[in-house]
């Protein structure tokens, strides 16, 4: 917690998992905070590169926020991590960020439960949503990288082969192949499944299509109407279209 | 795989910490989680699943279920103790909230004064004649 004193105004928490060489030197602004994007900047301090700091107080403290923030009405925090920002980070950095976010999520969940217990409002509940969004974005980026690697190595994007099939209701879906001990023509239950539809289903397919189209058009029109209302209320904020 | 510390409802021994954990976590999972991620020495873990009741009804008279959750009682190793801290200590109010609270109290006092009857009657309600 000694290095916490040198932290920026953002709600940040040190993690001993990272190489906190800069923290040991007491350089403010380059300590790792939750939403601070200077993960990469922690690296270039060559003489302190291999220094590991120990976690503060055996770690149960990390289930709770900075003691200065206890009892506050609102705690400041930065924005969530964007996918574009995460794509530029290395896999090691993403791995460390994932665990930082996991611990932060646990801390916020603890705070939420305690505030429900004490019948008090939780200070800044939007932090939880930001953390969840960041974690989801990290997952997406890792998935993208995995697919890219698999494409390069094998030429397939999906880990398990599959194909598009129809079900007996006329819907089209992606069927993944499963491992079976016997071939399909010996599998009684599989043979009862129908991967085709009869001609009388075409009427219902059309109805479903019409319903989906109507929904899409309704949503689009609603969006346009909302924009119109806003334009009428706030004409000075209207985005001026570029005149050619 | 989340884990959150909770204040125990029933007083627990000094070295026991109570957590609510993800339903799919086992005792071994919890032990490894705490040791690897939080660097906390764990001696023993006991778990139970708390069933969330399905008695409450919403405005449509449908039953609303409270979610089930798993509770873990973790005993710390190396003789460590843990007390669940008070996360909402009384803090000094800044001048804004203080002045707002003063204003609110004064307004309430004025309203109560209006509700009271004639002071010359000595607290006797108006129901009584004269």
Helices and strands in order, then pairings?
The complex is a heterodimer of chains A (244) and B (130).
Chain A: H1 21-24, H2 83-87, H3 91-117, H4 126-153, E1 162-166, E2 172-176, H5 188-192, H6 202-233
Antiparallel strand pairs in A: 1-2
Helix pairs in contact in A: 3-4
Chain B: E1 3-6, E2 16-21, H1 27-37, E3 42-50, E4 69-76, H2 95-115
Antiparallel strand pairs in B: 1-2, 2-4, 3-4
GO cellular component, one term (chain B): mitochondrial large ribosomal subunit
Pfam family, one (chain B): Ribosomal_L23
Organism (chain B): Cuculus canorus
Structure description:
- The complex is a heterodimer of chains A (244) and B (130).
- Chain A is built from six helices and two strands, in the order H-H-H-H-E-E-H-H.
- Chain A has 244 residues and is mainly alpha-helical.
- In chain A, strands 1-2 form a two-stranded antiparallel sheet.
- The radius of gyration of chain A is 27 Å and the shape is extended.
- Chain B is elongated.
- The mean pLDDT of chain B is 92.
- Chain B has a domain of 74 residues: Alpha-Beta Plaits (2-Layer Sandwich), CATH 3.30.70.330.
- By secondary structure, chain B is α+β, with helices and mostly antiparallel strands.
- The longest helix of chain B has 21 residues.
- Classes of the chains: A mainly alpha (244), B alpha+beta (130).
- At the A-B interface, helix 3 of A face strand 1 of B.
- Chain B: Belongs to the universal ribosomal protein uL23 family.
- Chain B: InterPro entries: Nucleotide-bd_a/b_plait_sf (IPR012677), Ribosomal_uL23-like (IPR013025), Ribosomal_uL23/eL15/eS24_sf (IPR012678).
- Chain B: It is found in: Mitochondrion.
């Amino acid at each position: 917690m000694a290095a916490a004193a040198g932290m920026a105004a953002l709600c940040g928490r040190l993690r001993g998992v990272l190489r906190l060489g800069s923290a040991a030197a007491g350089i403010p602004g380059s300590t790792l905070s939750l939403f601070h994007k200077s993960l990469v900047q922690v690296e270039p301090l060559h003489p302190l590169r291999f220094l590991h700091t120990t976690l503060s107080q055996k770690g149960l403290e990390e289930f709770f926020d900075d003691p200065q923030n206890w009892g506050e009405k609102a705690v400041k925090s930065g924005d969530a991590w964007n996918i574009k920002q995460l794509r530029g980070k290395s896999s090691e950095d993403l791995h460390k960020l994932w665990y930082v976010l996991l611990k932060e999520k646990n801390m916020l969940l603890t705070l939420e439960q305690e505030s429900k217990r004490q019948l008090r409002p939780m200070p800044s509940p939007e932090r939880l949503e930001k953390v969840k969004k960041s974690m989801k974005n990290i997952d997406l980026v890792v998935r993208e990288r995995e697919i890219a690697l698999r494409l390069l190595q094998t030429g397939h994007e999906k880990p398990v082969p599959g194909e598009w099939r129809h079900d007996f209701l006329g819907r089209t879906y992606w069927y993944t192949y499963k491992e079976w001990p016997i071939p399909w023509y010996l599998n009684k239950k599989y043979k009862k499944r129908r991967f085709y539809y009869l001609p009388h289903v075409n009427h219902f397919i059309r109805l479903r299509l019409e319903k989906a189209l109507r929904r899409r058009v309704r949503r689009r029109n609603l969006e346009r109407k909302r924009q119109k209302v806003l334009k009428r209320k706030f004409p000075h904020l209207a985005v001026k279209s570029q005149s050619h | 795989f989340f884990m959150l510390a909770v204040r125990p409802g029933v007083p627990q021994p000094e070295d026991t910490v109570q957590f609510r954990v993800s339903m799919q976590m086992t005792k071994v999972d919890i032990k490894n989680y705490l040791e690897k991620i939080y660097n906390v020495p764990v001696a023993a873990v006991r778990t139970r699943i708390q069933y969330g009741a399905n008695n409450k009804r919403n405005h449509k008279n449908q039953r609303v279920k409270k979610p089930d959750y798993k509770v873990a009682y973790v005993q710390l190793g190396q003789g460590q103790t843990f007390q669940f801290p008070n996360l909402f200590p009384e803090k000094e109010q800044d001048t804004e909230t203080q002045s707002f609270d003063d204003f609110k109290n004064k307004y309430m006092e004025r309203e109560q004064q209006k509700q009271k009857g004639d002071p010359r009657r000595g607290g006797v309600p108006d129901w009584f004649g004269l």
